[in-house]
Amino acid sequence: MAVPSPTPSSIRGIRVSVVELAGYGRIRNLWWEYNLPVVNEHKPLSVIACLSSGLELVGRHLSLIFWPVLLDLWLWLGPRLSIADLLHRLVTLLTSQPAPNPEVASQTAQAVQMLEQAGERFNLFSLLSTMPLLNVPTLLARRGFFPVTPLGEPTVWNVGSMWAFLGWVVLLLALGSMLGVLYLDGVSQRLRPPDADEWDEDEDEVDMFLIAAVFHLLRVLRVVLFVAGLLMLGALLLPPWSLLVGLLVALSPMLGLLLWAVSLWIVGYVLLHLLFVIPALLLDDMTIFPAVRTSILLVRFQFPAVVGLIVLIMLVYEGLGLIWSLPPGDSWTQLIGILGNGSIATGLTAALFIFYRERWPVVAELIQKASQE
């Protein structure tokens, strides 16, 4: 099927979608379906330039770090949601069973020690920030809670039953996802083209505002549906996967470990190809399935650059995270780490959006040329 070459005046209205992929980036068929961004005439930014542009964006719009800072302040100075009582019951159950041999007794002792440490340090509120690019990035979610803060000993709320624990998990994951959507939407609003939401000048200003608000709400709802779909898929697949791995570990520890490693590789591979779905939803007003196809195409055509971007983001975030974690929890100097982490994490998040904005037009142009051959 031949695709006509767009003119400069009509390129904004082009609609393209991939029907079938063969191999890495080879395309067999195309048809018009979703908005194609304007093809840049200049060379796209390099990975380093995307990172620096993201950090510069935060420097110009410090309000973007509002959600990361607010969530870290809650995890630091707010009440703690502890599962120590729940884990203590589990420890009592484990220690009440006689060990058949010394090896099992040693393993049980190690498990008990790990559970006791988790009960002392784990703050269930940290589930508000657990998934990169879906939640608000925080510094303290992985550090556990501090026994003493500048305000004194924190209030501790204990979770006493398994049903309460499951309820809190569902609530906090949902709330964290909603905060993440608001956070990512704020970043995307600073990167959308100035004329992206322009309308006819003859329209009434109130009507224009309402139309823009509706389109904005639709973009956010698409992200919410995408995130909810991922969470539901994970909730469906995790229990049978855990059961299968547990059975294999009981039968053959080597096979169980192999299945666990392969499963992690598959999950990482899938998530890598979904990396730019949210930028596509928020920056180019795509619907979910075209956004998924766009993300897959971008990762396949720009695979080395995407991997380089992820590696650099991880190095910068984890490396500076060690520095931000140096201040003690009972000192107000922890604020420096919270502000620094919020700024860097938001800049790195913006870098992903900038990378998408710069590289997707290049891939789209390759698709156009492929369709004409």
Give a brief description.
The chain has 373 residues and is mainly alpha-helical. The protein has 11 helices and 4 strands; from the N terminus they run ββααβααβααααααα. It has one domain.
Could you characterize what this model shows?
The protein has helices at residues 47-60, 66-77, 84-96, 102-121, 162-189, 205-251, 253-273, 277-283, 288-301, 303-324, 334-372; strands spanning 15-22, 26-35, 80-82, 156-158. By secondary structure, it is mainly alpha-helical. It has one domain (11-83, 122-372). The strands form two sheets. The protein has a two-stranded antiparallel ribbon. A two-stranded parallel sheet has the order 3-4. α1 crosses α11 and α6 runs antiparallel to α7 (253-273).
